[in-house]
Design goal:
The chain is an alpha/beta fold and 772 residues long. The protein has 27 helices and 20 strands.
Length: 772
């Protein structure tokens, strides 16, 4: 039986981030819907053709999105909250982007996107997609929800590819995962109870796809790698009984990823589907159980190449694992472990990385090439692709033994770490007693999370400096002027603890990685974080250490401009780890500890320079949490220890802050407490302080800044709105514990909305302070 190759999804942004450019032109009013949709159609056409030319047999459609595939699913089924003024029928582009970004009428003075809106609606809640660094828009389902087919995108894109002579396998987010990810504002209502109402929309989509000529449809149910309860399992049985008989001419490929099926294996194998995809990168051991228990006619799609990391596959090792399957007479498809959405597009674009490191890497295009070579070896024998297999083996051997990876000095420092190094000298109460007189702050002290807008002006100056068109001295003078202006403006509006704005930083992880040993950096290896926001994760390939101070000079300059406390701003080890492409030859725990020691050195140097407040951002602490609860304790143990190792060299009088974004951490609140930071700031605006419910039962010992406005939207909240959120926070925490800050850094925002929002925020703090 011929072994075929599938991709489960391909990056959407374009090799040169064409989608980002088109979206931002549209949102700023510089282009119209037709121009945006033309760019999107061109990107899709090129992506399909590229995969076909690489030799992919099962090419996905409907994996493209203008913003987010979960939001696309909400639009498809008409799960549009009343806030957005939608009254049925096709979901318009403006409604779609209002859900993604919020919308505000121009009379209120905010950038509202392309058109006038008669609504003032915040963006839908956003959170991390499983344990990745991709954000999705959380579906909202009400108790009286009616579903309808309100977007035909899945059908249109299948037809579009077909018109180009490419027969695709459409991708749908499965109905059970969709409802499991959904939330409701109706108290006590479980969105999963709406399954029977939702299934007819999915049935209609499958019927229409069948009429259009689709023979396979990929239905993603990543919830199958989570801890499921009886309701979830019953929902899966119900859903697939209905869908399997809906369109008899369409075969369903049930797709799971990011982990193993484990105790859900029996459920998955009992579903009436034609194919099952399993992730053999995250859970290689599940293959034997699947082979032993799967019905013989079930097509098995094996995720053998890592869809989430950038390391080249070891073909010799994979072929040794896969060749025995040839004797089983099963129909096998080779695929990445998950959608390639999480990887950069093409390694061939990178010209500046160390050639040794390049030889260890594979991006989306190269991963497809690997799959095609593996299929060739299995279908025609290894001799047919001997050269490619030999090159893969040589690269794997070189990587294992390279002196660029292993550093003896780092190893000896790691061996010298003691448990005492991860403990502050005194309790929070004692530290607070010396911090209060040193900082002399009012009740409800105001601050921001760190970054200020990186305007086009700033980005152009950085690009000019990178190209050599702006001298080091001229660039430094430019950055000093930006910093001085930001510091003066913060003093003017009355912020209590200031930041320098981070104009010299390209990205909160990249900036540190570029100054640490063991990291490689790319020029074009962008991946989508959400919407038009793209990141270039550093590649952590070797042992990590800090050659020299990284932030002290800029902190010293900024503190010299003001008598108010200036925060030292650092990124924590867990976040650097989780937002990098991490080496796969050592444990994540070991890599985290190496980074922690490097950042610890920076804390020591900032404190020696006089910093009274040092913020160590752990934005990504929760997103690294394993998907199975049984694995949480081990992760939290080393993640919390990594943070404490970074912070615990500080003296009692140094106030250590940390920040976490989009962390639904009610269930890990004890671990947050164990980090022993003096102040944490968290995202709470989109969830209307829902996160603070955790503090009803857990007496959080330290101080906390619950974000009072959502920075992921251009909307400017009113003074009253922010004051109300602070009063809501006051009902759960004591006045002495509360700080006032935005949800996150302001790097991606524009100055007019930033100024307006922060002025309102300071005013809200004063209003609540006055009512104390």
């Amino acid at each position: 039986m011929t072994i075929t190759v599938a991709t489960l999804g391909f990056p959407r942004i374009g090799p040169r981030r064409e989608l980002k450019t088109a979206l931002e032109r549209y949102w700023s009013g510089k282009s119209d819907p037709a121009a945006l949709l033309a760019v999107a159609a061109d990107l899709r056409a090129r992506t399909w053709a590229r995969q076909r030319d690489l030799g992919v047999d099962h090419i996905p459609s409907n994996d493209f999105s203008l913003y987010d595939h979960v939001l696309d699913t909400s639009a498809m089924v008409g799960a549009v909250p009343v806030t957005y003024g939608w009254t049925g029928g096709p979901v318009a582009l403006d409604t779609y982007f209002a859900m993604a970004r919020g919308a505000q009428s121009e009379a209120d003075g905010a950038d509202c996107g392309h058109h006038h809106h008669a609504i003032d609606a915040p963006a839908a809640e956003m959170t991390k997609w499983f344990d990745t660094n991709y954000h999705y828009l959380v579906p909202e389902v009400s108790a009286d929800q009616d579903f309808e087919l309100a977007s035909t995108k899945a059908l249109d894109e299948f037809a579009e590819a077909k018109a180009q002579g490419i027969h695709t396998r459409p991708v749908l987010l499965g109905p059970v995962t969709f409802l499991k990810l959904a939330k409701s504002k109706d108290e006590g209502f479980d969105p999963r109870s709406k399954l029977d109402a939702l299934l007819p929309v999915y049935a209609k989509v499958l019927n229409r796809l069948e009429q259009l000529g689709a023979d396979w449809v990929q239905i993603d149910e990543p919830c199958l790698v989570l801890d499921l309860d009886g309701v979830d399992r019953a929902a899966l049985h119900t859903a697939y009984r209905v869908l399997a008989r809906t369109a008899p001419g369409v075969k369903l490929m049930l797709t799971t990823y990011f982990g193993g099926l484990e105790d859900n294996l029996e459920t998955a194998l009992a579903l009436p589907v034609a194919g099952l995809h399993i992730d053999l990168v995250r859970a290689p051991d599940q293959l034997d159980r699947v082979l032993a228990n799967a019905p013989t006619g079930l097509v098995l799609s094996l995720g053998v190449v890592d869809g989430r990391n950038v390391w080249r596959a070891d073909m010799e090792k994979l072929l040794t694992r896969l060749e025995p399957l040839l004797a089983t007479d099963r129909q096998i498809v080779l695929a990445p472990s998950c959608s390639l959405l999480h990887t950069p597009i093409d390694l061939a674009q990178e010209k500046a990385i160390d050639p040794d490191v390049v030889s260890w890497l594979a991006f989306a295009v190269q991963k497809i090439e690997e799959l095609v070579i593996l299929a060739g070896a299995l279908n025609q024998g290894r001799a047919a692709v001997a050269g490619a297999v030999a090159a893969s083996t040589a690269a794997a051997t070189a990587r294992r033994t390279s002196p660029k990876i292993h550093d003896l000095a780092v190893a000896s420092r790691m061996a010298a770490v003691t448990p005492e190094m991860a403990r502050r000298a005194s309790t929070f109460g004692r530290r607070r007693a010396v911090q209060i007189p040193r900082l002399n702050l009012p009740a409800f002290p105001t601050t921001t999370i760190g970054s200020f807008p990186q305007t086009e002006y700033v980005r152009k100056a950085r690009a000019a400096h990178d190209k050599g068109d702006l001298t080091d001295a001229a660039y430094e003078a430019f950055l000093r002027a930006q910093t001085a202006r930001a510091v003066a403006w913060q003093e003017e509006i009355g912020l209590d603890v200031l930041v320098h704005g981070e104009f010299e930083r390209n990205d909160m992880v990249q900036y540190f990685g570029e100054q640490l040993s063991g990291f490689a950096f790319t020029k074009y290896a962008w991946v989508q974080s959400y919407g038009s926001r793209c990141v270039r994760p550093p590649i952590l390939y070797g042992d990590v250490w800090r050659p020299r101070p990284m932030t002290v000079a800029w902190w010293r300059y900024a503190q010299g401009l003001t008598s108010r406390p200036m925060k030292g701003m650092l990124t924590g080890p867990v976040t650097i780890l989780n937002w990098s492409f991490v080496r796969d030859d050592v444990s994540r725990e070991l890599a985290c500890r190496q980074i922690a020691l490097a950042i610890r050195d920076e804390v020591t140097d900032l404190e020696a320079a006089g910093a009274a407040v040092i913020q160590i951002d752990e934005a990504a602490l929760r997103e690294g949490l394993p998907l199975r609860r049984a694995d949480w304790d081990n992760y939290l143990r080393w993640a919390v220890e990594g943070f404490r190792l970074t912070a615990s060299g500080a003296a009692d009088h140094t106030q250590i802050h940390t920040h976490m974004c989009y962390s639904e951490f009610n269930d890990i609140i004890a671990a947050i407490g164990a980090m022993d930071a003096d102040v944490i700031s968290i995202e709470t605006a989109r969830s209307k302080m829902e996160l603070l419910d955790a503090f009803a039962s857990y007496a959080y010992p330290a101080e906390i800044g619950p974000g009072v406005y959502d920075i992921h939207s251009p909307r400017v909240p009113s003074v009253a709105e922010m004051a109300d959120l602070l009063r809501a926070a006051q009902s759960r925490l004591s006045i002495g514990q509360l700080w006032v800050n935005p949800d996150c850094g302001l790097k991606t925002r524009k100055w007019p909305e930033t100024r307006a929002a922060l002025v309102n925020m300071v005013q809200a703090a004063r209003q609540v302070r006055g009512g104390v």
